[in-house]
Design a protein that fits this description.
Elements (H helix, E strand, L loop, with lengths): L2 H8 L5 H8 L5 H6 L1 H7 L3 H11 L2 H7 L3 H11 L5 H6 L10 E7 L20 H15 L2 E7 L3 E4 L7 H5 L10 H8 L5 E6 L33 E5 L15 E5 L5 H13 L6
Parallel strand pairs: 1-2, 1-4, 4-5, 5-6
Antiparallel strand pairs: 2-3
Length: about 280
Amino acid sequence: MTWEDALSLAGSKVDKARLWEALIPSMGIFALVRNLRNFGRAGASDEVAATVAAKLADPELIARSRMFPFRFWAAYKHTDSLRWAHALEYSLANVPALGGRTLILVDRSPSMFPGYRYSTPNKSDIPLAEQAAVFGAALALRAVDPTLVEFGGGNRAIPVAKGGSVLKLIEKFRQIDGTDIPRAVRDHYAGHDRVVIVTDEQTRPGWLPSNMFHHGGSRETRIDDLVPREVPVYMWNMAGYKHGAAPSGSSNRHTLGGLSDSAVRLIPLLEAGRDASWPWL
């Protein structure tokens, strides 16, 4: 019998705190993370919460779970408890370590944030700006030689400490008015082995957007004019637009829709396919 079955059979009149306390010892990591908020709402005891926290602070259990930072970030945000922060840090072990030099560009323009009339629609309860920051921070902390950049109309590099904290790195991100991807690429691309761009795009097909030309910034620019064709460029389109800002489906140019736990796996899989190594799964 699963924990879902037990909850269903118990009905609404059972003391939920006692029921959760009985179920927790037999629950796996995924189920625990999924229900952290429910434990708190039900009033589970501090002793039981400590048991859950101990499991989520076990680096071997987290590594075996193959769960990625997004799920632990969501749990941390939903509960606002540092008890679960350890799991977020340990989940970095499940993020592929990219070799060579990686340029990671993270969009921090206002449309990535909620509350504006021009905010990009988002069905998740985690804002797009936070999703992008978690993704960029996780990739950067695991990469051999990362350059992490946040951009809007302007841009700046964010220092990445080896062995640093995901939470600490995410805290360094800020909001930047405007959108100028071409400028961010020009300012920071320096012979990197790959370029990763996370953005809500707002563009016409095949062009990197900029709304800063009349404010001293760039015109819209094709990615092939900024990055050599032999260098892979991965653009995550968080808005779900039909047309991507970069060409896709041809060699070394990839436009991908949305962010999820599995998104971090795609770069090494695509590069393994390009290099014809096997097995690639």
